[in-house]
Amino acid sequence: MTGGGDWQRDVLRQLTDGNPEPVAPAVPEEHAAQAAPEPRQPSPPAASAPPPVPRRTPDPRVPAPVPESLPTVDPRLALALGNPHHGDSAARRAGTSLRRLTASATQEVAEQTRLAQEVQQPVTTGRVIAVTSIRGGVGKSTVSALLGRTFNHYRHDPVLTLEADAALGTLPVRMGADTVRWCCADLARILTPAMQLTDITGYLVPVADGGWLLPASQGRVGAPMDIRTYRTVTLALRRYFAVTVVDCETLPGEVARTAMDTAHARVVVAPMTAEGIHGTRQVLDWLGQLPHSALAGTVVVLSANSPDTTMDPKTAAAHLREPGVPVVPLPYDRHLAQGGPIHTAMLGRSTRDAAVRLAAEAMRRAVRVR
């Protein structure tokens, strides 16, 4: 009998001891063909995790790359906009002037003065007013632009209109910006506590009627704004601007929920449709469940985007007022429906009055928050 059992036990013992290559004992030549072991294939190397990529800390001595300036509207398309229409027709403007002559001028002036005082309330720290809606295309950016222009007109301290919408937001166009360069993500990377207002405004877009604009992007399809960028920009810029109007993305986006939760006042734009009013009411019920009484700082804008709407505005407003929020109707306006830049002088009289009332309602609630 050969020593086959012994050498197998030796091989097992050597493998157990961790020797990489066990040595087999000699085998007689007559059994060499049968006893020769199969040639061993080299085992593949064990998979190892790739080494972590070291995070590069930006060198403060190296300036951030300057983005190129891009037009908000393609110049070939801008030629097709045509001349802006007035919000009211000529017949309606004549009727409005006649009614103003026969109405009590003292009462009208008193109401306008009261609303102007509400808009001009002094603040100790910057107030943030967030504007959102349940879906796009209902006039959210239009309402944000109207608010920004109204605050710019009545207030004498710096006012910022900030876009926190997706990459293809329309706020720069509505605010009348011809080109955009720096956006929120760019500014978030270079903000420092030592910067002065004159340093900040170098990265913003000046608005024709006063105030400043900070776009969310350059109008290209890309990654939307994240929560960290939004918090960084809004918290830092509150030092420099008395009022910041934020054009948020639509609900239930993460940035929109964060903006609605952290703003001093909230404006929810509801379209004059059954499904739009129903969805907005659900948003109001959600705000009422937040722990810090967000509903008390909310205003609803009931926007009529068509002159042929069949929804009864009084019934719609009453349904939205049930949670205890004010409702500001925004009538159909030919100038707003045309699209493109908003010219304040071309707005209808009812639209201008609604914008001032909305600004007063939002500012009154923003100042309540301490």
Automatic annotation (TrEMBL):
<dbReference type="GO" id="GO:0005829">
    <property type="term" value="C:cytosol"/>
</dbReference>
<dbReference type="GO" id="GO:0051782">
    <property type="term" value="P:negative regulation of cell division"/>
</dbReference>
<feature type="region of interest" description="Disordered">
    <location>
        <begin position="1"/>
        <end position="71"/>
    </location>
</feature>
<dbReference type="GO" id="GO:0016887">
    <property type="term" value="F:ATP hydrolysis activity"/>
</dbReference>
<feature type="compositionally biased region" description="Low complexity">
    <location>
        <begin position="20"/>
        <end position="38"/>
    </location>
</feature>
<dbReference type="InterPro" id="IPR050625">
    <property type="entry name" value="ParA/MinD_ATPase"/>
</dbReference>
<dbReference type="InterPro" id="IPR027417">
    <property type="entry name" value="P-loop_NTPase"/>
</dbReference>
<dbReference type="GO" id="GO:0009898">
    <property type="term" value="C:cytoplasmic side of plasma membrane"/>
</dbReference>
<feature type="compositionally biased region" description="Pro residues">
    <location>
        <begin position="39"/>
        <end position="68"/>
    </location>
</feature>
<dbReference type="GO" id="GO:0005524">
    <property type="term" value="F:ATP binding"/>
</dbReference>
<protein>
    <recommendedName>
        <fullName>Type VII secretion protein</fullName>
    </recommendedName>
</protein>
